[in-house]
Amino acid sequence: MIMRQRTFLITFMVVMLLPVLWAPAAFADQADDLFQKGTEYLREGNLVKAIQAFTDVLAINSKHADAYNNRGLAYYEQGQYAPAEADFANAIKYDPTDEKANNNLALVYYVQGQYDQAEIYYNKALSFSAEEKPYYADVYNNLGVIYAKKDKFQDALTAYNNAIRVTETKNLGYTDAYYNRGNLYYNQGKFDAAIVDYTKTIDFYEGSVDRTSYAADAHYNRGLCYYNKKLYDQALADYDSAIAIRPDFKWAHYSKGYTLFMQGRYDQALASFQQAISIDPNFDYAHFGLGLVYQRKGDQKNCISSLQTSCDLGNTSACNALKELGAR
Description:
This protein is mainly α. Helix content is 72%, strand content 0%.
């Protein structure tokens, strides 16, 4: 029986919503006051009051693009994507070259899985200015994520490279494009290049308050690269780092168990698979791994029991293994 490593890569999508912070000077005093109040409410996270304030602005001037944009942001933050989409579309209707509204509409399309539309509006947002702005790093990164989802890998690489160029020229503290480019390289089998990009992510988040959110994933993915290069000790070190940051990271426990299994360290592999199962009792891959460890240890009863559990959970490799053993 052959045990197969499960690859699990996480892609970062940057949520970069762009508000209008100041009302145009030509605004009527009442509308101006309402706009400023709405913007302040938006900054404070008081979304209900922000929506009401911007609605009041639009009652005075129904063609005010910035009020539509900011109300759309409030709707987005509430998870109300349909009214957010409508507001961003109206903002563009009354100000077609507004970078902010085009960027925001693209993001709403993205979160709803409408990648073709998201691609169109991100590219529009980039087309309105010859000057590269810091937030373009986020736009390029998000385009890269979209291209990767659409299997347009060369376009994704170009977008990530553009994001990194903006990041470096603007001296931004930003690693998402490095991480996502690392995923792209990993999936192309370019493990050395992927390791470089994951390492940049790890180094950036070392000691950061966001370390739990991102560094564990980068350590885990770098561990997969080392495994594929047969550098098992380095892989184990990264899996341990991922687990230290996020103790309930079941894939890191599983991959650690898999690597230990491949090294013939069966008792330690057993412990890692059991830990993964304690985190998720329905983790079919870990039950399968457990079955193979028991087989190598000559424990036929527990081998069949673990494989049966994995098979019942939908793991076809476990079902095939049971057939090979004549137990199914």
